[in-house]
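Attaching the record inline, Q. Sequence:
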Amino acid sequence: MNLFEFVLLNRFAFQLGLSGSNRGSNLPVAVRTLFRFEDCREPSYTLQESIWDCVCLVGMPEVDCTCGAFILLGALCNAVMELVFCAIVYSSMITPPVDESTLQAIKHWRAVVGHDIQWADTSSKWSLVSQMCSHNPALQFAATQSGFVDDLSDYLHPTTQSAVSDKLNGNTLLVFSLLLYLWELFLDTIHNFEVTRAVIAHTHKEPSWAVKDGCLSAKFGPVQLVMMLLASTLPRLTVEVFLSYVGILFLVATVSMSDLLLNAMALAFILDIDEQVFSIIVPCKIRRMMDRMAPLELRFLHELALPHLHASLHKPLHRIGERREERRGERGKRRGEERREERR
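Structure, as predicted:
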């Protein structure tokens, strides 16, 4: 229930409670009506404009081989592009700029070069390290070390000196970037499981279409379920797990606040590649079909698994039970014959 529906139904309950001679007597009825209205709305999932979601339409009636080939090609291209982006980030962009060797090199430079009188300023009598730490804009040497110090200073201590701005440094931006990025991944994972759950709930022996209230109601077959699992659910879950690991390391290894913001936006862009591929590759026929489709009803896992499991295992378990009974009968006959022979 969204906010508008809640306010509207709440006002309806309030009016019912104040109407009539006995004010307040109808309020429990109105509240019960409110909750009954909410309970009547079963959970459902609407297919999104994503190449991952439209994989379930491959092999359906009215979806020819050409459209199915385009959908599978788009899903393959999408998975390859996202994994290639993750591989590039993992191979060359998650190395932290500061490690033990970097610290040892900076200490050696400070002891040997930074405090050497040869590189000191003759007018101010400041050493090279003092000029670099004071952010002297006229510094002509040690540009690499000076840039490194400036980035760390801006990341840990912003230029505006105040009690509030000192807390809003790079660490704060990193925490918020990680939370928003992980939340985006979590929502994408929820959508992945919901569309798979919806396809499983509407899987029958044969795929078919039905028109209900002006919308298309889909019944998927075993082929659509297998295609959904192999071409959408598992590749999408693999990308999400790999992207969560790579993205966290990528954001943690960033020491510039501007680069941190751009890197977080770039990682979010990788999650939106499926929508871009959908808008480019999927034919217009499939888009119109998805727009006319009714929301797919969602069911709980035990409602999905137990009936199918019971129906699929009923015959084999019944046969196993019959064989056990036959074996027990044969053993009983043998024991009876052996006892008779012993008595004789």
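The radius of gyration is 33 Å. Residues 263 and 269 are 10 Å apart (CA to CA).

More tomorrow.
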